[in-house]
Amino acid sequence: MGAGNFLIAIGSDHGGYRLKEDLKPFLLAKGYQVMDLGTDNTQSVDYPDFAQAVAHAVMDGSAGAGILLCTTGIGVSIAANKVHGIRASLCHDLLSARLAREHNQANVLCLGGGIIGLRLAEEIVEVWLQTPCSGQERHRRRVAKIERIEQEHSGT
Fold first, then answer.
1. Which end of the chain is more exposed for a tag (fewer CB within 10 A), N or C?
2. Are 67 and 125 in contact (CB under 8 A)?
3. How confident is the model at residue 148 (pLDDT cuts 50, 70, 90)?
4. Residue 80, domain member (yes or no)
5. pTM score of the predicted model
6. According to the 3-state scheme, what is the secondary structure of 16-37?
């Protein structure tokens, strides 16, 4: 995902707020546009609300990708993956960030604001955004199977 006019939807609950705020200037400096979907302070809020907002922005095409943060990244990952067509990946290291894109065609990156620091988060975001989805048949086949499971359980 090249920068330029590429828009990233970003959101967090109170546990990921500070890291979200620190990542925004990093993304802007790399040439990405940022759509901040909240929260806007450290007061306690419910992470599913922000996960849903970011996931919907990705699914309706308002954003090319999403980044979600909470204390661990687990809650926003679970919530975002409930939205049809979202493949949210929880990544706390560079290898999982690369493989989430390369093998799983992840379209939302989830991070734990209480788990990793800013420098590692920046590296993960950069690797995740710069890694293209693999064109290898085995990866396309597996993602297609994920999509079929999603279709079977969505009622559509």
1. C
2. yes
3. confident
4. yes
5. 0.93
6. CHHHHHHHHHHHHHCCCEEEEC
In a domain, 75, yes or no: yes
pLDDT at 156 over 60: no
134's CB contacts (< 8 A; 6+ apart) are 102, 103, 140
**Domain containing residue 100:** 7-154
Q: CATH no. for residue 137? A: 3.40.1400.10
Residues forming the active site: 70, 103
pLDDT band at 144 (very low <50, low <70, confident <90, very high): confident
- The amino acid present at 153, given as its one-letter code, is H
Distance, in Å, from the CA atom of 48 to the CA atom of 51, rounded to the nearest integer, reads 5
Q: Which residue has the tokens 């992470």?
A: 47
